[in-house]
Write a structure and sequence with these properties.
The complex is a heterodimer of chains A (about 210) and B (about 250). Chain A is mainly alpha-helical and about 210 residues long. Chain A is about 90% helix and about 0% strand. Chain A has a domain of about 140 residues. Chain A has 5 helices and no strands. In chain B, the strands form 2 sheets. In chain B, strands 1-2-3-4-5-6-7 form a 7-stranded mixed β-sheet, with helices on one face. A 6-stranded mixed β-sheet of chain B has the order 8-9-10-11-12-13, covered by helices on one side. Chain B is globular and about 55 Å long. Classes of the chains: A mainly alpha (about 210), B alpha/beta (about 250).
Chain lengths: ~210, ~250
């Protein structure tokens, strides 16, 4: 699959690849969304266990609230990033269309040779190329914003590493609920690692086209 | 791309086709332009692959800003997939095309050009001197389909009706109708789905005074060959794809 993707990307020029890579990022973010939902679910599960454990898991309760909040924040962020990634893809498609149109106008002008209207088509090509340049700048700007948003998720996931360590510590004092809470901590840890992997991959994909 | 002026009395009908630069594997198409003073109409301007050649040809006759109207007989890619590029070349133009295809044709890119849906019963378009009629040709082959008739020039641009599959570089006009039939038969039998629609169209078109019938593929018909075509087409059974399927299943 990775090989297929690399081959696919290599068949496009750098500008052309942006509309593909940002759409790929949008697709990959759907997985992040699913994993973030798993985190939220784990938080709800932890909350229920903490309720049952009563005083034995008192110190665990604020952590569950934090995890829940983090899960929801991740989902909201992913939704925004997804919109942004699709926006990048749309702008990149427009850039590509303008570039292609400009090339075709120039080709038409060359077919006209010395004809007096060849200049009209050359001017039109320049106009469209200027649109393509504007679009290109917009794509780069949007891509930078996209990277910043991905960075925010990354920060969230870094915090989750701290939380899962803290959860393990607090779980020890929860006596018979220790094992359940350990499972919750482990789920969160694994989920955040997975999200970090995907985010790293997404960032790499975007950087390749910057 | 070869250019042929097929009418030149006050305004011009120009045919573009037989493009030697056309990539292999795509069907050859005839494009038409009516240049009427400061207004020009492109008829079935073609696909993306021939856009540059077409734009160069058109620009020889008219400034792109004077292309005020475009006609697309139906939604096929060889008819109008270049729309997204014409949208950049002629942003002030109007596109006249069957109303039923608007949502589909817009997929080719139509941000600035204004889509003017032609009602099922047809309509008219006036340029400067030219007064054109959009003649219904539904189901021949597309379910929303029009021909363009010019009563002054006596030209019927018939879209896929009368089309022939021919090798590259064939002549512009039919020279031997009987010999030409073999190049049209499969196309009409397989691409045209409805005998009822076909006969309805033949009746409608017989009432028109036609000197030249200009299809979108292959050669043009002139003079007595127009009537020969109508007679041949009326007698032809179309929609044979279903029949062929039934016999191969038997």
């Amino acid at each position: 699959m990775v090989h297929e993707y690399v081959y696919f990307m290599n068949t496009y020029s750098q500008e052309q690849a942006f509309f593909v890579s940002s759409a790929v990022v949008a697709g990959r973010l759907l997985t992040v969304m699913q994993v973030a939902k798993e985190i939220s679910l784990a938080a709800k599960n932890a909350k229920a266990i903490a309720e049952r454990a009563g005083e034995k898991a008192n110190s665990f309760k604020p952590i569950t609230d934090f995890i829940d909040e983090m899960g929801r924040e991740t989902i909201t962020l992913v939704e925004k990033i997804n919109e942004q990634a699709l926006e990048v893809s749309r702008s990149a498609v427009e850039e590509l269309r303008c570039s292609e149109a400009s090339e075709r106008f120039l080709h038409a002008a060359s077919l006209l040779g010395e004809h007096r209207r060849a200049e009209v088509l050359q001017d039109k090509a320049k106009e469209i190329e200027a649109d393509a340049e504007r679009q290109k700048k917009e794509v780069r700007q949007q891509a930078r914003a996209l990277l910043e948003m991905l960075e925010r998720i990354w920060s969230c996931m870094r915090a989750s590493g701290v939380i899962s360590t803290r959860s393990r510590v607090e779980a020890v004092s929860a006596e018979e609920y220790q094992e359940s809470l350990q499972v919750v901590a482990e789920t969160i840890e694994k989920a955040s690692e997975r999200i970090k992997d995907i985010i790293r991959d997404c960032e790499r994909t975007i950087h390749q086209n910057m | 791309m070869k250019e042929t002026i097929i009418y030149d009395e006050g305004y011009q009908w120009i045919m573009f086709g037989r493009d030697p630069d056309k990539p292999e594997g795509i069907i050859d198409t005839n494009q038409f332009m009516i240049k009427d003073g400061t207004r020009s109409l492109l008829l079935d301007p073609g696909g993306i692959e021939i856009f540059s050649s077409m734009l160069a040809c058109v620009t020889r006759h008219s400034d792109p800003s004077e292309i005020t109207d475009i006609f697309a007989s139906h939604q096929d890619p060889d008819i109008i997939s270049s729309l997204g590029l014409w949208d950049k070349a002629t942003p002030h133009a109007k596109l006249h095309s069957p109303w039923i295809w608007e949502g589909f044709i817009r997929h080719f890119g139509c941000e600035k050009i204004q889509y003017c849906g032609i009602p099922d019963e047809g309509s008219e378009l006036e340029l400067n001197q030219a007064r054109l009629q959009f003649i219904p040709a539904h189901y021949l082959h597309s379910s929303g389909n029009f021909n363009v008739y010019d009563p002054k020039a006596k030209i019927l641009m018939s879209g896929d009706i009368g089309a022939a599959l021919e090798p590259h570089g064939s002549p512009m006009f039919v020279e031997d109708f009987d010999e030409h039939v073999q190049k049209m038969t499969m196309f009409h039998q397989r691409w045209m789905p409805s005998n009822r629609a076909k006969n309805d169209w033949v009746q409608r078109v017989r009432k028109l005074d036609i000197k030249i019938m200009a299809p979108q593929h292959g050669r043009l018909f002139k003079g007595a060959d127009v009537k020969r075509f109508l007679d041949w087409f009326e007698a032809l059974e179309v929609g044979t794809g279903v029949k062929d399927l039934a016999s191969s299943n038997a």
